Amino acid sequence: MKRLITIILTLLVLLGLSYGITYYTHKKFIDYSFFIGIAFTAIIWFFTSKGGYTSRNVDMTVQGTTGIKAEQQRFEFSPNIAFFTSLAYTLISLVVMLYQYRSYF
């Protein structure tokens, strides 16, 4: 049940952001949905991974300030259901966008 709620909430956020931007810019929904999906997927990836660039930067700042060497974390990413949902939304919107603009290719 928790997974279903997460999927629905993620889709509502993605659809809401896409609709909100298209409402204020007076453009088509499909024009922004793919880019919103990419951005949201990247944000989820960034905030659910451990040991990346920002972690190393904080470790070096702490080490430089205090002189105490911190143990470095290995990069680790464990995808969750919100990541897979936004990835699926991105891929579906890419296919729909390519189909919609097929005459331009």
From TrEMBL:
The keyword Transmembrane applies. The keyword Transmembrane applies. Keywords: Membrane, Transmembrane, Transmembrane helix. It comes from the Bacteria. The chain crosses the membrane at residues 30-47, 81-101. This is DUF3899 domain-containing protein. It comes from Bacillus salipaludis. The lineage of its organism: Bacteria, Bacillati, Bacillota, Bacilli, Bacillales.
